Amino acid sequence: MTEVARFDLKLDAVDKDLLAKAASLMGTTMAGFVRTAAKEKAHILLEQSSRVTLSNRDFAALNAAIQGAFSPNPALQAALTAAAKVRRA
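Request: output the structure for the sequence above.
Response:
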């Protein structure tokens, strides 16, 4: 069973009336309406914050770098050479 935590919220009368009317239209309680709306907004914000957004110029530069020819630097080339010499079972 999920642990229940309490969250109290103070509203002015106008905001409370607004939420009460909206909850009534949705056929739910004010608490249920606020809980659902807050969770939806939280999911949207968290999803947006996990994305990387690039300008068109930055996207073009990243794309060019990814699509460009790759040549290993000396350290990587040495590691690749050493790895090729390892005997595999």
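The helical segments are 13-26, 30-49, 56-67, 74-85.
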